[in-house]
Design goal:
The chain is α+β, with helices and mostly antiparallel strands and 377 residues long. It is 20% helix and 34% strand. The radius of gyration is 21 Å and the shape is globular.
């Protein structure tokens, strides 16, 4: 494969047969939308949507010291994750800058005394994370394996998703908690069934072998027909996660920010045993954030119709007080929305006089607490 050739998922022909608009995303040719991104968004909020997420980066970590390696390499306390559970965490540089945000699944024990974890990285950072984990594994009795080609990843998200999936599996979905995963069979296919997602809705992510992806997609499509399930692309995935106030690497997170700068200091577990990469820098970042609070990630809701985009300045009283990180029309709110880092003095919900500089025009915005949308449980 040439360096400029896009990678294709096992579902590539399926997407094209469905008439998807394809786009280059992190070196992968991925479906942006199949028809109306607004209709896809609304389907996930009210019924169910089916996503191909096979571009995500799976990295397997096994061995007697797998937990110790992950505790050293990542900022979270991975050693406390019970088998069958998952944890949101981050991998940082020595200077505390965020390399990526991750989900780590503990899949159990492979043989006597050997633990089995799966680290799921963002597509754009998968190689960086793999390289960092491989480098940090030196001295640990653990193996880091690139499993990006070993999995296809499908997600069914939305209020109808438990019923759709239950019709295809005998797995105990009722007993499957949020941020947990269990091995099972879905439509006759072996899968890791995870109750995770990036939409703000209940839903499941299904890790399967690539050769099983097409059959599983078709089975889910048929099972979801009566429930209004539709195929969904990356465009509505972005507006769904934005409404749910979920950060996106490259927008809300970057190597220029520590977890404390991003308001996610809670993922850093200083109390865990032993050293970890970035501990000293993150200790300083925590102290700095306590004495001089960094800019705060807030929600902005437009009073007008103009849509803010990443990089647009946030203004108040003629001064620049922050910057938009993500912005889009919100199908649920019916207005343009944005996430932005703003100075603490302007971060309180209801702060008046805040606007976004959209090509020289200061458009008025209301400051709101994140998330914009929270599902009723």
């Amino acid at each position: 494969m040439s360096s400029t050739e896009l990678r294709r998922t096992a579902l590539d022909a399926t997407h094209r047969a469905l008439g998807a608009t394809m786009t280059d995303f992190a070196g992968w040719d991925m479906p942006l939308r199949y028809g109306s991104e607004r209709e896809e968004h609304v389907a996930v909020r009210t019924r169910a949507g089916l996503f191909d997420l096979s571009h995500m980066g799976e990295i397997t970590v096994t061995g007697p010291q797998a937990a110790e390696l992950l505790n050293f390499a990542l900022v979270g306390n991975i050693g406390s994750v019970k088998p069958g559970r998952a944890r949101y965490t981050m991998i940082c540089r020595e200077d505390g800058g965020i390399l990526d945000d991750l989900i780590v699944y503990r899949l159990g024990e492979t043989e006597a005394g050997s633990s089995h974890y799966m680290v799921v990285a963002n597509a754009s950072n998968a190689q960086v994370v793999l390289d960092a984990l491989t480098e940090r594994a030196a001295g640990f009795d653990a193996e880091v394996r690139d499993d990006r080609d070993a999995y296809a990843l499908l997600a069914v998200q939305g209020p109808e998703s438990p019923g759709i999936l239950a019709s295809l599996t005998d797995a105990d979905l009722d007993g499957l908690k949020y941020y947990a995963g269990l091995p099972g069979t879905v439509a006759g296919v072996p899968a890791l069934i995870a109750r995770t997602g990036y939409t703000g809705e209940d839903g499941f992510e299904l890790f399967v072998k690539p050769e099983h992806a097409v059959g599983l997609w078709q089975a889910l499509t048929e099972a979801g027909e009566g429930a209004g399930l539709v195929p969904c692309g990356l465009s509505c995935r972005d507006t769904l996660r934005l409404e749910a106030g979920m950060p996106l690497y490259g927008n809300e997170l970057s190597t220029a920010l520590t977890p404390f700068d991003a308001g996610l200091g809670r993922v850093v577990k200083f109390e865990k045993e032993g050293d970890f990469v970035g501990r000293a820098a993150l200790t300083e970042a925590a102290e700095r954030a306590a004495s001089q609070p960094p800019r705060v990630l807030v929600g902005l809701v437009a009073e007008g119709r103009r849509v803010p985009r990443a990089g647009y300045p946030v203004v108040a009283g003629g001064e620049v007080i922050g910057e938009v990180t993500s912005g889009a029309p919100s199908p649920t709110l019916g207005k343009p929305i944005a996430m932005a880092y703003v100075d603490p003095a302007h971060a309180a919900e209801g702060t008046e006089g805040v606007g976004v500089d959209i090509r020289g025009s200061h458009e008025p915005y209301e400051v709101v607490a994140l998330p914009f949308y929270k599902r009723q449980k």
